[in-house]
Amino acid sequence: MKRIVGIAILGFGTVGQGVYKIIKEKHDSIMYYTNAEIDIKKILVRNFNKEYKVEIDRNLLTNNFEEILNDDAIDIIVEVTSSIDQAKDMMVMAMNKGKDIVSANKAAISKYFNELNDLARDNNLHFLHEAAVAGGIPVLKPLGDLVMENDITRVRGILNGTCNFILSKMTEEGEDYENVLKKAQELGYAEADPSSDVDGIDTLRKLRILSTMAFRQDVDENDILLEGISNIKACDIKNLAKLNRTIKLIGDAWVEDEKIKAIVQPVAVYSNSYFASVREAYNSVTVYGDMVGELKFYGAGAGMLPTANAVTNDIIDILFDRQSKVRLGEGLNRQITKDEIKGDFYVRYNSEIISLDSFKRKKLTNESYLIKNCQYEKLKRALKKDSNSIIIRLESEDY
Amino acid sequence: MKRIVGIAILGFGTVGQGVYKIIKEKHDSIMYYTNAEIDIKKILVRNFNKEYKVEIDRNLLTNNFEEILNDDAIDIIVEVTSSIDQAKDMMVMAMNKGKDIVSANKAAISKYFNELNDLARDNNLHFLHEAAVAGGIPVLKPLGDLVMENDITRVRGILNGTCNFILSKMTEEGEDYENVLKKAQELGYAEADPSSDVDGIDTLRKLRILSTMAFRQDVDENDILLEGISNIKACDIKNLAKLNRTIKLIGDAWVEDEKIKAIVQPVAVYSNSYFASVREAYNSVTVYGDMVGELKFYGAGAGMLPTANAVTNDIIDILFDRQSKVRLGEGLNRQITKDEIKGDFYVRYNSEIISLDSFKRKKLTNESYLIKNCQYEKLKRALKKDSNSIIIRLESEDY
After folding, report:
1. ipTM for the predicted complex
2. I need a labelling partner for A320 at 20 to 30 A (CA). Which of A75, A90, B61, B124 fits?
3. Are residues A50 and A106 located together in one domain of the fold?
4. Does residue A138 lie within any of the structural domains?
5. pLDDT digits 0-9 by tens, A23-76
6. How many domains would you assign to chain A?
């Protein structure tokens, strides 16, 4: 006897439409493997007159969340809106009505990670969000497995497709940031307001989720140092290429001397390194566990179908109660420190505004320098007056 | 109330000892996340007087499988022996007694894949074997998820740590095959009789498991073309390095024109490609799905703890009934063809024994040639008389 599971999709942008498409197109296969039918009962939208990339039954559209909330035939809420607080309120209300949640909304999940996970666990409901980190790559589910028998000491990744696309194009075509951003916007790889991507905020949110799950201890958005890519110029790419390096925006969180350190920043990796080979809008996550060693996961970090594939998989996992609920460790309260993050850096700044005389540095060009074994925060403060300056970490030999 | 799950370990080599170690060392963490205690009740060995790398309670050792079979407190059998038919018999007997199975035994699983999976499904038991393919890398579990909503069109990987170690050392140190093999044996990376590794048989078994799961149709050992690495010489590495290529042993199965093609062979990949960056005893698997796109998984392909980590995770998944049982597709019977595998190849042979005059070829050195767009089987037959000859596929631009 087949089971029918009712779902509602909140928000019908790219990801929502992708979920609709996969559930329809792969209906027979999903039914064959799960013996269940995923029945899309409602789709919450703001505007009824929009055109969509998939053909849908317009009777499913509603702008009334209450209608979804009060429909007992809706078992699972697929939250793929672009709101933050409103999305969280809807997820909380839905869980209070006994509905399981799948979400791809990294902003809301990052901000309300503990509240949402706690509520799900307390009510014995699922709150799954594989698509929120690294799009189509299955990484949160394996991570949820690994923490049971590994001490994870580091998670690191190229987590934002827009930034990686821009940096790849700047590197390969020698163009300046502004031109590439414009192209990215025309191609739909970057939004009209690209700030949450290019300023590193999106990467930071994903690192917050990844590191909290990996270290089984709350690593908050405020615990993570942040530097974006919008100040990177063609000359920086060129200067670093001469040192055989390629710039990537990397989110990196690790345990060192029993302290947790986390930072999102542009890193000049070796041009023959693994991360340099992650190009275009692709993402990659590496995880280090004391039993399993190093694992790397690679795939599409964004895009309609890869992201929707992750969402659909979460729906199926809920049908079968197949994933662990997120649960932080007991008694883990390692210090989380920003001040102690050190490294070797490439810096470019206007020497008419700024003096770095107190730093031991090596001149590369009139405007750019290499600085060895320096505290990141100190350097950041010294460059504060020059809003066009940039700090890029140099990958060390043992990175 | 905590649950106690009894297990027995069959075989106590590297992997078995690793499982013992993880279950003991990570006892508290596993208990915290699962609320279950994994209780090792028995360990099946041939010889009672062996020294082990882990300290164990010697009372657990037995050489009597019946004792394990008839112990109702043993719920899960962890089969990590090096036998084939005997291992299969034990797994069948255990399933007939209602016990779930975890195995890392790729030889037995490859040979009896359908029989073991069918028996497990018919009896509503688990038969999990993540550790049998690519050691510590979680790949079979994500693959089991992906097939529900993806048509997988290709699986490909560096699947044997011994071969990859040997080829890496030959490439980096310019040494000949025999010297490196000797070193690998001294370091414990290769067995005294290395034939199943270096002849590609181990890779073939893993590809048989991977491709059958990916294509949801039986791809048998006999369906896969096979060429090993034992004929590769330092001169081949050098000749191909001049063409900016690195040799890797790759298992590759794909769907083309609605036909399935599968081959294990040395491939000269571009030296700046992803597969070239997979060095030492590491493994990598790439999977292509029509929804998710390309995914790559990377990690330790062998070793006590990574492999045992995969086994332990399977045990935990059984506790919670968390993985799909393997089930092939319905009505899928695409033709599996060996004859149609074509490509560009590097060949080295003794021209005093062999003539390749009928092949359009380009001379590289006195003994080695490049041949374009040629049928692999035809070339193989032509070289048959020269037992020292080697065929290496040239990765094409769009590989």
Report:
1. 0.95
2. A90
3. yes
4. no
5. 999 999 999 999 999 999 999 999 998 999 999 999 999 999 999 999 999 999
6. 2
